[in-house]
Amino acid sequence: MIEQLLQVQTDSPEVAWSLIAPLVTLALGGILLITISSLIPSLKDNWFPAAFTAGTAAAAMVFVVDIWDRVSSTGPEFVVANSMSVDQYTVFVTGVICISVFLVSLLFHGYLQREGFSGPEWYVLILMSASGGVLLASAEDLIVTFIGLEILSIAVYVLASLHLRRGESQEAGFKYFLLGALSSALFLYGIALTYGATGSTRLTGISQSGLNERGLSPAVDSSMILVAMALLMVGFAFKVSAVPFHLWTPDVYEGSPSPVVAFMASAVKVAGFAGMLRVFFVGFGPYVEDWRPLLQGLAIASLVVGSLLAIAQSNVKRMLAYSSITHAGFILIGIYAAADPESRSNGGVLGAEAFLFYLLAYTIMVAGTFGVITLIGRRDDGRHSLDDYRGLFKSNPVLAVLMSALLFAQAGIPFTSGFLAKFRVIAAAAQSEAYVLAGVAMLASVVAAVLYLRIVVSMFLVDSPAEADEPDALPSGLSAFPLAGVTAVAIAVVATIALGVLPFGQEILTDAAEAMSAMR
Amino acid sequence: MYLNQFLIFSAILFCIGVYGVLVRKNGVLVLMSIELILNAVNINLVAFGTFHGQAAGQVFALFVIAVAAAEVGVGLAIVLLIYRNRRSIDVSEADLLKG
Amino acid sequence: MSEMLLPSLILIPLATAAIIAVVPSFFDKQPEKTEGFYLPFSGLIALAGSSLTGLVSFYVLAEFVVGEGGFQFTSTTPWVDSVGLSWAFGVDGISLFMVVLTGLLFPIALITTSAHHDSKAYHVWLMMLMAGSMGAFVALDLLVFFLFFEIVLVPMYFLIGGWGHGNRIYASMKFFLYTMAASALMLVGIVSLVWLTSGADGPSFDYRVLLEAVTADGFAAENETALTFIFLSFALAFSVKVPVFPIHTWLPDAHTEAPTSGSVILAGVLLKLGTYGFLRFGVGLFRDQIETFAPLFLTLGVIGIVYGAAVATMQKDLKRLVAYSSVAHMGFIVLGIFALNSQGLQGAVLQMVNHGLSTGALFILVGWVYERRHTRQIAELGGLQKSAPILAAVFTLVMLSSIGLPGLNGFAGEFLILLGTFQSGRWWAVVAVSGVILAALYMLWAYQRSFHGPADGENAEMKDLRPYELAGILPLLFLIVALGVYPRPVLDRIEPSVEALLQTTEERPERPGVEGIVAAAEEAEEHGDDDYGEDSHSEDSGDDSHAEDKDESHSDEDQSDEEPADDEASEKVDQ
Lengths: 520, 99, 575
Description:
- Chain A is mostly helical.
- Chain A has helices at 2-7, 21-39, 48-74, 88-115, 121-138, 142-160, 167-198, 203-208, 211-214, 218-240, 248-255, 258-283, 288-311, 316-338, 346-376, 392-395, 397-411, 417-431, 435-461, 483-501, 506-518, and strands at residues 77-79, 84-86.
- Chain A has one domain (16-467, 474-518).
- Helix content of chain B is 79%, strand content 0%.
- Chain B is built from three helices and no strands.
- Chain B has helices at 3-23, 27-52, 56-86.
């Protein structure tokens, strides 16, 4: 009977495992981690989960490098019954997500020890969420896009509310969950309408279907497509916290555990942008003139609102939440330039380069920044007002210098990756003649500089309040902080400055950008 | 039955759902409203699938049901945590975070 | 070797900063009270590094080929090829003296001032500031220039905020945000310009490539509107940095609150970034636009001169007074640039150096007075001449240079500027001269109130200059006298570059073909200023006698110094 079973041939698709190895590594790593930790309980309280997670991310990175070489020679590969596409763009984004996972897992180690939480579930959720992000970035079918989005999000909902002692954490988780669930419901409705209008959930199918071949009637279909695109855009805008869908961001960033925010602001955003770009470039390429103005509106609103509202804040996490909204505006300009139908050849590539470089630079900067915040938060992760940073330079000069380097990078000061990222975006925008957009972006970055300067002023120029007798005063000296966390921050700073000064990686960027432009 | 009957029904469900999310104060009821939206989507998907004569719509609906279950599971867990901390699941009372 | 010369001007201070940062602050224990020369360990490293940089800059000066207008010591290293970025460096006669000035002022600032606390961080920022300002002056890539132009904000921000006086945080924020806001749009302007000129070879940010593209046939006429907007974005950035009149308000605050070294560098080096930008990129790339807007900037420059002088007269705080005098002096430089002729531009470059020397020295002196008396209020000072005769003597010399007394450096620059302005717009020059008179007024009055009269209380006990302080400021005094008596060597190096700058734009087909600027000036004389007819109104038609004056001065600076010198000197004595 077994022999008979072996004879049965099914019609299941071929799976090119080697091409989806990073995705599988991340997901399988999560499952393995929770299995091992359950079987050997003594492992879960020490360095093991963090090292395992960082190792998984590193292993995924190795696969990323390998696959990069393969797709460089073969061109885009479609895998798992053409539902996913592996090209240089996907691989690049996967690499960025892996970097984020690596840095965040280092941050978690000291954080969990300080807060007195045990257990590998934090790491497992990070790995799961990251695999969802990779799936989202490579999805060629709206069903897969949706599943990737949900895997990415659901894990983060849990992570946001996982600090059990803090009411704020649960509240943040619940807010994030409610708005996230609402946005994915809207997103789904958009998918349903798209399916109705085009008869396909496959992105290439959507872009290729002549509307009147299979749809209801041209007029109904085109209006359905428009509504669908708006709903899909709303769904992604929620994930990347673009104005006016940003309302959750400050609250969630403030309430969630700090290393989780580092992940949210980096990997989740990157995946959201990557998914948005693929869906709209591949699926809705023919309708670029319809959705491109939406991007412009979102970008301007994000830049203006994000930079202006940040000024009034006094909580550092809230400030950086608004700053991440401003960054989202910059990234949207990159997409806007990349989608320029006029300059399909060169200008699009420049915009795509700007977009990808911004994602990479931003991921590292923001992970490092929230890394410092994690270190400074003290027990219960609640000390994040500007006053808590007063006199940091006196007590912990190294930490203060690292933090200010990251903040200046976010402000776009030269010789950091932040400047080069902004410069690329501005250059791309100017090339597609979006001068107003470029001007608004630069002015917004000046306004946003106020908020970074306020933090720097607190750290360097204001003396710390007399808190020598305070029980949870910030320890002085670097050795008082967990080594892994400090290492993560240091890596982020070095990478931020190196990316801003040295020209390496340009070919990688160009290749990925060309792959991205080829999707249109 | 006409296709647009399903579509209109689904649109009504969708609107009720969005209204519920925006207006309801009770956390659990908000979750239910989100479920309504998801079900509106399912009706749409199945109807379109039948209209196009494909199985894709129905398959997608199955995926949505599965994901929705996971989502509600997480949502209820968070509501439960909040209830343990504060003895209330009123969304409007969640005011620890503001700025 | 010579390719590494200019990069080393940036790399040496940067390396010095890195060395200071890693040396433990244990070595930096500062004694409570110091008499005589004292620098903490970090200060010694900084002094060594900045002196080395200064020596390199002097070497550049010595090796500079006189009579060539182009860029020398050029080097180019590709950076981001896809958008045409490269680390391109080079100096010509205009930037050469900025580089030397920077190389000179930093070691002097280190000797003559000291940090009151956290000397390690202080010296790190100072060295980074040096690297940044050097970079801005030697950069030939437009974006690299912008990078350095922006990056100097950071160390300066920390210097003002960390080691400044009373209202330091407000002043440092204001300084940072004003300058950053103004230069934000310049980045958009830069990339727009690059795309506009991007040809078959792809985009390039190299100044020389851009210059070629901009001066190509018909380019300026085709893209007039775009170039105007781009020029405005540049002009805004430079105007705030200079600062030009209505947007100067950050400067008095920054100067007043900054530590002495910060003020010296701010006045001596950083403000020059604005005028240097106008000279290099404004005059070079946007000739049509700069001519169109010349009347505006001439007017603003003149307003700056008069306004700065008038407000300086009313100041009660000695340092604030010097700050406003800076506004007036920078107004002169703007005037010289927008005169748009050889004399004006040469005068502007010379005056940039002069202003760096004399205002730098003034800030050092005011800093010493403050250090001794713990006040800068003129009303509280008095009779310092009796207790500190050497200080008073040095102050007198520097003050006279700042006023523009003939025989000292300030005169040569201001004279050339006025000469140039007179040719292109007589009435601006006439009004500007009143600024010279006002300068004499506020300076002498301030001197009289604080140094003359009876010395009472603490004023009587004020310590005079220590030998090392005198030694530190001596190079500045020497140059103040030397450049006043014999500016020829400097002008010899400036002139070819200035003329090259004017010539590249003169060669355009739509302008009347003129051979060199001397010929242009002569022609202007004959035809009643055809070149600037549009901008400078009809008033300036008959300026023959003065033009002759100019020709003389052109051939021999020293002789011509004598004649108008007497006039102006007598005016000053009247005050």
